């Protein structure tokens, strides 16, 4: 099963639920995914804010995150994620490729995988703006073969591409 997930700017929400029934709200889908994780939660998100802290508080499983460093020279760890790593045991890896002060690429993917059973793929980051105010769209997927492939991609980034904060 696949469900469309959207963030609708409040000024446009109006009769959205009546006109497009069956479309889930991003904030609700994220809360449900985080709360449902019992074995593992895998997250790819270039941007997080304290919204992530509130979501991760509901997780009863190990959490792994692939993200980008905070902007600046040199790149630095994300303070929200590092606080979660210290307090909740969240494992964080950073992906960013630089050569001679030039950014070659930056990870911009957004992916959540709960227990290898449900996944979100879409445009919404784990921020208050993305979950409540922007126009964002994604898919909540329950197709096991697709999720298995997404997990292999996540694991490659986490285990072979991403680095710990102390290696930035």
Question: Mind explaining what this structure looks like?
Answer:
This protein has 168 residues and is α/β, with parallel strands linked by helices. It has one domain (25-136, 159-167): Endonuclease Chain A (Endonuclease, Chain A, 2-Layer Sandwich). It is 35% helix and 27% strand. It is built from seven helices and ten strands. It has an eight-stranded mixed sheet with strand order 2-1-10-9-8-3-4-5, with helices on both faces. The chain has a two-stranded antiparallel ribbon with strand order 6-7. Strand 4 (63-67), helix 5 (79-88) and strand 5 form a beta-alpha-beta unit. It is globular.
CATH-defined topology = Endonuclease, Chain A
Oligomeric state? single chain
Rounded to the nearest angstrom, the radius of gyration is 16 Å
Structural shape: globular
How many distinct helices?
7
Name the average pLDDT.
91
Give the topology string: H per helix, E per strand.
EHHEHEHEHEEEEEHEH
Largest sheet: 8 strands, mixed
Q: What spatial order of strands do you see in the largest sheet?
A: 2-1-10-9-8-3-4-5
Whole-Å distance between the termini? 39 Å
Query: What is the CATH H-level superfamily?
Result: Endonuclease Chain A
**Class from helix and strand fractions:** alpha/beta
Which CATH C-level class is it?
Alpha Beta
As a percent range, the share of helical residues equals 25-40%
| Uncertain spans | none
Q: How many domains, as an integer? A: 1
Number of strands: 10
How does CATH name the architecture?
2-Layer Sandwich
């Amino acid at each position: 099963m696949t469900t469309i997930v959207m963030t609708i700017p409040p000024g446009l929400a109006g009769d959205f639920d009546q006109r497009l029934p069956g479309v889930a709200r991003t904030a609700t889908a994220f809360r449900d995914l985080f709360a449902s994780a019992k074995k593992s939660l895998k997250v790819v998100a270039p941007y997080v804010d304290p919204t992530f802290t509130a979501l991760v508080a509901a997780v009863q499983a190990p959490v792994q995150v692939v993200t980008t460093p905070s902007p600046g020279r040199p790149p630095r760890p994300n303070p929200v994620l590092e606080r979660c790593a210290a307090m909740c045991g969240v494992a964080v890896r950073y992906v960013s490729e630089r050569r001679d002060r030039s950014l070659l690429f930056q990870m911009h993917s957004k992916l959540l995988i709960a227990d290898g059973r449900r996944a979100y793929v879409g445009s919404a980051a784990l921020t208050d703006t993305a979950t409540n105010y922007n126009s964002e769209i994604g898919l909540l997927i329950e197709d096991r073969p697709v999720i298995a492939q997404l997990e292999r991609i996540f694991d490659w980034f986490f285990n072979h591409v991403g680095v710990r904060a102390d290696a930035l």
